[in-house]
Amino acid sequence: MNLWNTIVLEPLLNVLLAMAGMLFHNFGLAIIVLTVVIRLAMTPLTNRQTRSSRAMSELQPKIQELQRKYKRDQRKLQEEMSKLYKEAGISPLGCLWPMLIQFPIWIGLYQAIMQAMAANPEDLLNLSQHLYPWGLVQQGVPARQSFLWLNLAQPDSYMVLAVLTGGTMWVQQKMVTPPATDPKQRQMTQMTTMMMPLMFGLFTLQFPSGLALYWVVSNIIGIIIQYISGGWGYLRTPAVQPALVPQKPAEKK
User: Fold this and answer.
1) Which of 28, 122, 133, 237 has the most CB within a 10 Å radius?
2) Roughly what angle, to the nearest 10 degrees, separates helices 97-116 and 121-128?
3) Is the pTM of this model over 0.90?
4) Residue 247 forms part of a structural domain
5) Residue 9: its H or E element
6) What element of type H or E holds 146?
7) Domain span at residue 50?
């Protein structure tokens, strides 16, 4: 636990409080600025994830062909798929790294928000054990819980952040997810594209709105970065329709 505090919790907590001290004690603005910094720092990984996702989608026909060819020989199938990935210069795990890296940030940010919102002497005493001896950090204590209509330590009772979280995540996913030609793959893609935004939208109803604010701003920045690099991407691409089987001409009697 001490290692987690040293590596994740305390840096996030102190940077947030220092930013709040510079931003007129506005903890909400501090969360937004920190989100921008984190997203910009992760841009190379995010771009790599986008390229890997597109490359994986382009390889789907070849992967399905290998699955049909070696469906009774799983070892050979794995060997051929590894060879295919190597030839294409991609890694299946390349799509997961940005998400895996963000998990500790989400957990640490949740803890940092709850620690910073010290509401009584006992909470303030616990908070003092995690503070750096920086003047800006001291200026940011105690952090103000109010930001716009939000209490940053409580879920958004108006559910605005839930809608924004789900909506921005859906747009971001649609921009980078190419339409699948295989019906089963298309159905799975559509389900994933809908389930993730719904799941995170429901999370915002349980977690502090400060964390939800991070998700919304992070998604908006992701949309902007993706738009700059590739326009609206697949958001405006029409769904792929199954190919029509040509009809044989009617025989003349």
Assistant:
1) 28
2) 130
3) no
4) no
5) none
6) strand 146-147
7) 2-236
